[in-house]
Specification:
Layout lengths: L5 H11 L6 E4 L5 H9 L3 E4 L4 H13 L1
Parallel strand pairs: 1-2
């Protein structure tokens, strides 16, 4: 979403669909509040840099719930 940070976009998406499945990625670890919110909604965070196996594992865990 143009003009929003990743965490702000995630929170907006939750308002639209509380059951959204997503993975956020950044080179900076988010604060504990955002990590808790992600986990509460079945979403995940992966810190850059990551390899294809790490990404695959995170995506699989989100898809499977």
């Amino acid at each position: 979403m143009k003009g929003l940070s990743g965490d702000a976009a995630f929170l907006k998406l939750l308002q639209i669909d509380p059951h959204i499945k997503c993975v956020l990625s950044s080179g900076v670890t988010p604060d504990e509040e955002l990590l808790t919110t992600l986990e509460k909604h079945g979403c995940r965070f992966i810190e850059k840099p990551f390899n294809i196996n790490q990404l695959s594992n995170v995506l699989e865990s989100v898809i499977r719930g």
